[in-house]
From TrEMBL:
This is GTPase Obg. Monomer. The lineage of its organism: Bacteria, Bacillati, Bacillota, Clostridia, Lachnospirales. GTP binds at residues 165-172, 190-194, 212-215, 282-285, 315-317. It is found in: Cytoplasm. It is an enzyme of class 3 (hydrolase). Residues 352-429 form the OCT domain.
Amino acid sequence: MFADRAKIFIKSGKGGDGHVSFRRELYVPAGGPDGGNGGKGGDIIFEVDEGLNTLTDFRHVRKYVAKDGEQGGKRRCTGASAQDLVIKVPEGTVIKDFESGKVIADMSGENRREIILKGGKGGLGNMNYATSTMQAPKYAQPGQPGQELWVQLELKVIADVGLVGFPNVGKSTLLSRVSNARPKIANYHFTTLDPHLGVVDLDGSAGFVMADIPGLIEGASQGVGLGFDFLRHIERTKVLIHVVDAASTEGRDPVADIRAINDELKNYNPDLLKRPQVIAANKIDAIYREEGAEDPIERLKQAFEPEGIPVYPISGVTGQGVKELLYGVYEKLKNFDQKPVVFEKEFDTDALRAAENLPYSIEVQDGVFVVEGPRIEKMLGYTNLESEKGFAFFQKFLKDNGILDELEKAGISEGDTVRMYGLEFDYYK
């Protein structure tokens, strides 16, 4: 089965602890400290693998933990650094923070390899703490902890052109005619469950990549049917081809179908409607029009060409009009940067570690416990408190950073109010 989403847990390695030891050699009665430093923990690295085209492997392995660095040793020996853990993903994979949904990295275009979580630094051995007044320090620095995160992997198809339309309007037939793709074609709704990519070669031009996206139904932007799967893959395309059944062989209204699809695109991401669109009025070989009846092609042109959306009558079966459609699409593509659409980074995992060392303060103002400071502000900036998962992350942050303990020391009781940058909460154990 095609898999285009996966939730996995990733954790970088802990740094090795610094070592406490002293020189013990013959004829050296008062040897100084010689405890070595710990090694660095392994990084979590994501890397594009050209041989992969699905996220299926992540359905079987959901936990990826890098190894810890080795402890420091005697005689100023530094512990070995752990090997990095490299996770291979297909091109087009977007890595998101699961709690907030923000983009950590987009493995597309020139971004082929990226460190997502850095391993902890090794702790300093006691040899680093010797001074003129403390010549035999009996302590060493522990290794820095690794970072951990639940991430959502989403595979978004990289194609220049996306074929959109309701099920059974002929998208797969069109793709198989104009490219090297061979999707399964049958007279059933939702026959295309996987996105199919095909390279379209045009005489005298560079050609382009076309994707047949899974069929759409109304309510897709709310996740009905294959909705999110469908819409996720459209986000990278530069030009959209609406494929409609101009012959209404199943009683569908092609004008209403295009309006419905554009409504779903708008609800999911309004920017999608800014992409150039063309209409492929398919199945003209099956049009039967009684004398005096309205021409369905003219009806489509009157409805959409005033909006700047050209209509191309075609037959995916006979090939009629297909060449004109492809060259019309290519003319629109020429105005675009040929680099694939790459999503901007929204979530910096380095900030997670930086926040751990930032200060914060707790004050009592008119019976309200006010918690503020850079550590709190940075954490709130990366957390969606409106979601259940985000609020759980928020509570864990307060506990792990000792903030709940500090509130207890400040005398907080159940039912008291805690305020953080305009947000207020009732405190309960």
